[in-house]
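Troubleshooting entry. The earlier prediction with adenosine-5'-triphosphate gave an output that would not parse, so I re-checked the input for stray whitespace and re-submitted. Clean input:
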Amino acid sequence: MDLEFRNLTYTVQSRIARGPGKQVIKGVSGRFMSGQLIAIMGPSGAGKSSLLNVISGYKSGGITGELLVNGQTRDEQQFKRSSCYITQEDLLQPLLTVREAMDVAAKFKLPKGAKSPSEDILQQLGLLEHQNTKTDQLSGGQKKRLAIALELVNNPPVFFLDEPTSGLDNVTTVQCIKLLKQLARQGRTVVCTIHQPAASLFELFDQAYILADGRCIYQGDTDAMVPHLQSVGLTCPRHHNPADFIIEVTESSQNIQLLCDEILNGKMYKSAKFDTVPSEPINNMHLKVCYQTEDESGETEIVLSNEKCTYQVKQYNEVSNSTTSLSQMSRDDSSLAWMKIQKTTCRYPTTFFQQFSILLVRMMVQISRNRQALWIQTVHHVMCAILVGLCFFGTANDGTQMFNHLKMCVGLVIFFAYTQIMVPVLVYPQEVKLVKKEHFNGWYSLPPYYAALTVSKLPVQLTLNMVFCTIVFFMVGVPFDVTRFIVFCVIGNVVSLVSEGIGMAIGSVFSVRNGCAIGPAAIAPFLGLAIYGFDFAHKIPLIMNIIMKTSFIRCGVVAMILTVFGFGRKSLDCKDMYCHFAKPDVLLKYLDIENSSVWFEILIMVSIMVAVRFLCYMGLRYRFAT
Ligand SMILES: Nc1ncnc2c1ncn2[C@@H]1O[C@H](COP(=O)(O)OP(=O)(O)OP(=O)(O)O)[C@@H](O)[C@H]1O
């Protein structure tokens, strides 16, 4: 697939300062041909990652200009199905083996019943011997290769990689770039950003696209760069790395301007194979009519429109003839054939329920293998339950301890709220990055992911909450009644699900650093409203009263008190001469909740839970769209 972009700009809007925004990419043009390995280079902050994100579709807002595929304005949905994006960070599903990760990718990406190519790909990429190693135990280079292998499962014709060599040593870097070159030689378009490669590495690339200050200062064959620089009076010293030299010359803004003007901000392509550099910009060459088709006999035919296009095809054949098998592969990978296949299939090769079940199984396996987290959660719940139980041990029937019972109800609700909000706030930002990558690369859609995420956590969460509630209930000595006990556990679980929803909503939108501060802060208003709502509910205007009733902590506490002291609870023992609150009804009246219904409070909490989980879903959609 040949990619082209014309007069591309990308503007980022500051979240804090208002204004026209910062233009990161400034009207650049360029084209990336299939069968080529292309390096986007430039000094730090030049806009390399931004350009890659824009061309790949990973970023979609704040963009102007034209994006074309095989010369035609591209259909974003269709293009996404034909390309994949490999992020700089090695985002791999933890706690799965290499083979399991590959098999999951194959299940998502291939139609049901299709033979999984996992073994062949692992063999080709030298990962077969590590197929039983967990993904988090792989070395940096192996992780990078696995990230590529996962996307190779459905053999997309376009690969985008953001700094694939970052964090790798020299030997592994060369191996990685050679692998990418091999992928390109098989007919794919492989575009990656890279930071000042060594001279030997630079030579491995077919094309260099150099950016400085958001503008293109060179586009063309890597071996044509030094002659081009010389032609504009910037002579690269002998034995100097050309990749270093071009970055060095960008220190001067005059050089940037000169080079940008020479290359027409990317409209010109410099080729070493041309004796004469084309005098006209490439975008006037009508390259769009140069594409491959497959007729009914399966033969690949090259359709040409003009002489300039013939050159491109000759160059392509020259490369692909170098090995017989690769030329065969390039036929198989004919971009048009790919487009034909993609047009007939929907966005995902699997249905909602298939995606849901694959995700659910994957999540359950990961949860069950995360022994450390399971132990920490279990110990936390049991220890806290025992501590609460010891604080209020056997006092449930003591009429003089009524206010301590109230404190216990408030304490239990706060325990569930804070325990459940912090885990997703800490874990979710990283998970969102990984899920965004998989979603962007067309593995699955958001609804089945979200459904699986919600369901997968329930068994462990509900079990631990039940354990906590049981220990507290019996240690404190609340009179046992089946309904009371079940409702007691239900309230704990509902409060924990609301808090988890709030934590997920925060974690999906904010980074860990911000989330840590926002998490507890998000609970605070509910807590404040709860306290305020108890003391002054009868003294404040109706509207304020309604707002306060939306505090899920207040609902939880009220429901908890109604459960502990309701359901026909008998009078408590009184060791003093007079116990004002020995009769539970007196306490409920004093708290102004004698007419409240435990079911109504639970209903409000369930509504809040649905609302926050919907907010979380919308937060994820927002993150994935930007
Ligand atoms: N969301 C954003 N908000 C504000 N500025 C941004 C945003 N995204 C990118 N930028 C700015 O755009 C410029 C280009 O960023 P980009 O990450 O594309 O550069 P880069 O060439 O990839 O840099 P590096 O090699 O250091 O990763 C930088 O000055 C960066 O600060």
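This one parsed fine. Confidence is low (pLDDT under 50) at residues 275-342.
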